[in-house]
Specification:
heterodimer, A: alpha/beta, Rossmann fold, B: about 425 residues, Elongation Factor Tu (Ef-tu), domain 3, 6-stranded mixed sheet, about 20% helix, binds guanosine-5'-diphosphate
Chain lengths: ~325, ~425
């Protein structure tokens, strides 16, 4: 293949003579994810993509778009809105759905709380994460979804390392070890009984850094809160929490204005910001790489641990 | 930078968890929460060493509790490669897990305890590696520190294993003496094993040649999904989305659609919504054909001058993966990539002893973890290649229609 061909960027020439076609590792991951998306579209009657607003689900949307081009994404994006989201993230969600021409379904935790007279979480940082599960299960029932696509990755924590790509759930959304199937080669068995559904994780084999590298390479747009900006924050147990409609300072709090960015997009009530000057994607990625290095050293790591744990909790609510 | 998927195999206590922990730790790929746990446990240790096996203790806990044990996946990256490790427990009855983990691997690390040498498990893991045609084999002779780094002991193990490899026809075997616990010959060359002049393990993993693992000669493509936007500007668009299983497709290629047996020409190729002149394995592709033919999911598009087999009478090796036994005469669904057909297992010819490769008569039903040779008849023909010739188009699964479980791994034979 000559260097001038347009697809050349995706291809690196191998040193071995005669074999010049090979895919770079991100392209291999992408190929696997696209294959999974197409299996979902073909095997299920009513799939949906669970869109949380964060970089992982934005990456999913991006991959889904590639999988079905020039057609539209053949399933809706579903957002379970806790009511505590960053306005920037909601604005971005609406923009993205419109941009890719996907149907957007939003269901609110607020409504579930009212309908089911659930107890609102209290306290200074009232998290509705846990309540999302109720809304999600209702939404699955309402639309009779037989498959929910999610952005969980196996590198997130030990417990996830053995999660399947196609993970069968019973009608209560529960993971039952007995229902899990061996996954051989690239053959995905999505057959289910009535009432069951399957959670599918197309980016299982991606790590956090793979996601960032993909976002950089593909110039994927992200909500503005991923980049450094000024914000009024308070410090809580070593973490920076933004002041908002949902989090109000106590008399004892010192309100500071800091330049911060977010590493995850969660609820305003429980997502901590990190101090940062990184205003471009390259700067953000460089910071993440160097943080990981210092995290391995002697530096304090509590804030990151808590942050990661929060994202996990959010996802556990979903998955 | 490319991608290597590998599997680690060894008997219990050969040091598999320690080795994986060592690779993750020394390549600086440890997540924060894991590191914290590791450091905490290290504080309790008198010698100050780090318990690397802890990094993979998700499975360990399960093993102790006797819950389902299966494959866990771990990730690490070096500047040269991204690695995906399939970590399958080594216990005797877990043929199922090992086959699952090995099905996507292009390399296997077989651990041998230097004090034990080649044992029955080593043989079994090697047989599975040969059945599944894993292209590269690394024999890591571990715990060299416990045999005083003896070259004689190592050499004897190499000689012993070479005999196994020869019997099984394993092509590409590399031997490395290591101590997973102390990190000898893992990332850096060992200062104690001075007589070894090969690469340390990680360097070998980073440099092993993978380009030839993908077949670019026999073009195989199966339709996963038909894209029909039916919008105004794409009114008549009909694209066949799938993955290039092997080989290369070019615009203008004369192709045959199977099993229909219809010939036509590729009029357009698209990758990720962009038109391309050619596409190769394993790229995701959308093919448009010059003629309007009735094609649906599971149909295969190949080049007219390089045809796979088309048959509904199949000779197969089955690895049984379900608690419920296989009963000859039972009906199942057979899934070959995206093609789903009804199938009946007709005749079970013999059982393959996975410790010796000997053929044994089958008494009664086929049980979990057994590998058998059988004949299968499908309701409509399968378009395939023998596993030994083109594994990516020679593998399938059996699904139990009543439980929907995946009950067998299928290796299609001649
Ligand atoms: N001396 C020595 N001990 C080792 C080595 N590798 C592993 N071990 C020890 O062997 C035991 C079993 O190791 P583990 O990694 O848990 O084995 P697994 O069952 O194969 O995962 C542990 O006590 C390890 O510390 C080694 O290279 N040298």
């Amino acid at each position: 293949m000559s260097k001038s061909e347009k697809s050349n960027q995706e291809i690196f020439p191998s040193p071995q003579a005669g074999r010049v076609r090979g895919l770079d590792y991100l392209k291999q991951l992408e190929a696997e994810s696209i294959h999974i998306f197409r299996e979902v579209a073909a095997q299920f009657e009513r799939p949906a993509l669970l869109f949380s607003g964060g970089k992982d689900s934005i990456t999913l949307v991006h991959l889904a778009r590639k999988a079905f081009a020039p057609g539209k994404i053949p399933f809706p994006l579903v957002h379970i809105d806790t009511g505590h989201n960053f306005p920037e993230a909601l604005e971005f969600r609406d923009w993205l759905a419109n941009e890719v021409g996907a149907t957007l379904i939003v269901r609110k935790v607020e409504d579930t709380i009212k309908q089911k007279s659930l107890t609102e979480p209290k306290g200074k940082f009232p998290s509705r994460n846990w309540l999302q599960t109720y809304t999600l299960l209702d939404t699955i029932e309402e639309f009779r979804f037989d498959c929910c696509i999610g952005g969980a990755r196996r590198d997130e924590e030990k417990a996830r390392a053995k999660e399947r790509i196609f993970s069968v759930r019973d009608e209560f959304g529960q993971w039952n070890p007995k229902l899990q199937r061996p996954e051989l080669w690239n053959i995905y068995n999505g057959r289910i009984h009535k009432g069951e559904n399957v959670r599918v994780f197309p980016i299982s084999n991606w790590t956090e850094l793979d996601i960032w590298n993909f976002i950089r390479k593909e110039k994927v747009d992200l909500p503005s809160i991923y980049f450094a900006h000024e914000r009024k924050v308070i410090e809580h147990e070593g973490q920076l929490v933004a002041i908002s409609e949902f989090v109000q300072p106590d008399a004892s709090d010192v309100v500071l204005t800091k330049k911060v960015r977010y590493r995850t997009v969660g609820d305003m009530t429980c997502t901590a910001a990190v101090e940062s000057n990184a205003s471009t994607l390259d700067e953000v990625i460089n910071e993440i790489i160097s943080t990981r290095i210092s995290e391995r050293g002697e530096t304090r790591i509590d804030d990151k641990v808590t942050e990661a744990a929060m994202e996990d909790r959010k996802k556990n609510g979903y998955f | 930078m490319d991608l290597l998927r590998f599997i680690t195999a060894g008997s219990v206590d050969d040091g598999k968890s320690t080795l994986i922990g060592r690779l993750l730790y020394d390549s600086k790929n440890i997540l924060i929460d894991q590191l914290e746990a590791l450091e905490k446990s290290t504080k309790n240790r008198t010698d100050g060493s780090v318990d690397l096996a802890l990094l993979t203790d998700g499975l360990r806990a399960e093993r102790e509790q006797g819950i389902t044990i299966d494959v866990a996946y771990r990730y690490f990256t070096t500047p040269k490669r991204k690695f995906i490790i399939a970590d399958a427990p080594g216990h005797v009855q877990y043929t199922r897990n090992m086959i699952t983990g090995a099905s996507n691997a292009s390399l296997i690390i077989i651990l041998i305890d230097a004090r034990q040498g080649v044992v029955e498990q080593t043989r079994r893991h090697s047989i599975i590696a040969s059945l599944l045609q894993i292209p590269h084999v690394v024999v890591a002779v571990n715990k060299m520190d416990l045999v005083e780094y003896s070259q004689d002991i190592y050499n004897n193990i190499v000689i012993e294993y070479a005999e196994v490899a020869k019997q099984l026809g394993l092509q590409d075997v590399t031997y490395i003496p290591i101590s997973a616990l102390d990190g000898d010959n893992i990332v850096d060359r060992s200062e104690k094993i001075t007589w070894y002049d090969g690469k340390p393990l990680l360097e070998f993993l980073e440099e092993v040649e993978l380009d030839h693992d993908i077949n670019l000669t026999d073009a195989r493509f199966q339709v996963q999904f038909v894209i029909r936007p039916q919008t105004e500007e794409l009114h008549d668009y009909r694209g066949y989305a799938g993955k290039v299983i092997s080989g290369i497709y070019k615009k203008g290629d004369k192709v045959t659609v199977l099993p229909q047996g219809i010939s036509t020409t590729i009029s357009k190729l698209e990758v990720n919504g962009k038109e391309v002149e050619e596409a190769f394995a394993p790229q995701p592709l959308v093919i448009q054909l010059s003629e309007d033919i009735d094609i649906s999911r599971g149909d295969t598009i190949v080049k007219a001058d390089n045809l796979p087999r088309v048959s509904n009478e199949l000779e197969v090796l089955l690895c049984w993966m379900d608690d419920k036994p296989l009963i000859a005469g039972n009906k199942y669904l057979l899934q070959h990539n995206s093609r789903l057909v009804r199938a009946v297992v007709r005749n079970v010819e013999y059982k393959l002893d996975v410790n010796s490769l000997q053929q044994q008569p089958v008494e009664g039903n086929v049980k979990l973890n057994e590998v058998v040779k059988a004949t299968v008849k499908t309701a409509s023909p399968l378009v395939y290649d023998p596993y030994t010739i083109l594994s990516v188009n020679g593998s399938a699964i059996l699904v139990d229609e009543t439980s929907n479980s995946t009950v067998a791994a299928v290796l299609l034979q001649q």
